[in-house]
Amino acid sequence: MSQQSISFIYTWASILAMALASIIGDVLLSRAMRQVGDVNDLWRRSGTWAVLRQTLGNPTFSAGVLAMALSFFSLLFSLSWGDVSLVGPAAASLTFIGNAFAAKIFLHEKVDHRRWMAAVLVAAGVALLAG
Amino acid sequence: MRRSGLPFQFFLFERQVNFRKYLVLAGVAIFAATGDAMLSQGMKQTGSISLDHLTTLITALLNPFVATGIVLLVGFFATYLNALSWADLTYVLPASSLGYVLLALIARFGLHEHVSLSRWLGIALISIGVGFVAATPAATPREDSSPAAASRSESVADPAEERRRAVSGEAEL
Asked: Which chain B residues are within 8 Å of A64, Cβ to Cβ?
């Protein structure tokens, strides 16, 4: 296999790894914050410490932060092989689309046609802006 | 008299809640975009970091742009978590992408940089996408009966239901 095709595979593998870790992170953080509840209400009722304790003490939150950290390191990894103009937009667009699927499946969000349209349009828009 | 006063009071209450929540969403977008821009500017000045020369990492962290970028990204994370506590992920994410549009507009009108046609198209697509998502309710109504879920659905999930309750005097104001 040529050097070029190895670099191509590595770049796309790390873009996919980054998008996947980012989607997992977003879903876990969203689930954690849903368990905590509206932090503005919690803050009004019980103060700042209660918000910090409930958020930072939530195991799903810690798992989400870990996934986000993995996504960040995958970004650094992909940037060492790929071009910034490919890696950034490709990973961001994949994350937008993947999040819509993941939110529907794992978070049971009501993703109607307007939200699908939004995910596709924003993904395309981010690719164009960052490209 | 109490019954006749409620709809107006509720209108003010709803406006206040929505304004605060829109402010959080604006914070997500602005912190993300400005934080990224600061980090990117700082990293251009410090150059690439390698695992062999970890001292360059400390130099990078001391760069004012990088340090400001990190503070802004901490602000992003706090507002992002706040937004996720009362809105759906598929609502918060597109809304947060408006920050990229803001950056492009600042580049064009503030810094007088050239913005290419493809970038204008990108701005248009993101704006239309956010318009679609803004037309949907912020959170999917929950079936569970936890206090957190109940308070969330009361505050944003179904404004029509809440308005009905306010009119009939059931809402807690």
From this structure: none
* A41 interfaces chain B, CB cutoff of 8 Å: yes
Task: Please name the residue of chain A whose CA is at the shortest distance from the CA of residue B155.
Answer: A38
Quote the domain boundaries for residue B116. 2-168
Instruction: Quickly tell me which residue has 């493809």 as its tokens.
Output: B118
In sequence order, the 6+-apart residues with CB closer than 8 A to the CB of A75 are: A18, A87, A91
- Å from A100 to nearest chain B CA? 6
Residues 6 or more apart whose Cβ sits within 8 Å of residue B29 = B95, B96, B97, B98, B99, B102
- B173 lies in some domain: no
**A112 Cβ under 8 Å from any chain B Cβ:** yes
Looking at the 3D structure of chain A, how many domains does it have? 1
Chain A residues whose CB is inside 8 A of the B157 CB are none
Number of domains composing chain B: 1
The answer to whether A93 and A85 have CB atoms below 8 angstroms apart is: no
Contact call for residues B121 and B99 (beta carbons, < 8 A): no
Q: For residue B168, give how far its alpha carbon lies from the nearest alpha carbon of chain A (Å).
A: 24
* Highest-scoring range by mean pLDDT, B39-43, B53-57, B157-161: B39-43
Contact B79, B28 (CB under 8 A): yes
Q: Do B132 and A129 touch (CB under 8 A)?
A: no
Q: Is A122 on the interface with B (CB under 8 A)?
A: yes
pLDDT tens digits, B83-141: 999 999 999 988 888 888 888 888 788 777 888 899 899 999 999 998 888 888 888 87
Supply the range of the domain harboring residue A28: 3-130
Interchain contact, A103 vs B88, CB within 8 Å: yes
Contact (Cβ atoms closer than 8 angstroms) between residue A110 and residue B140: yes
Say yes or no to pLDDT of B172 above 60. no
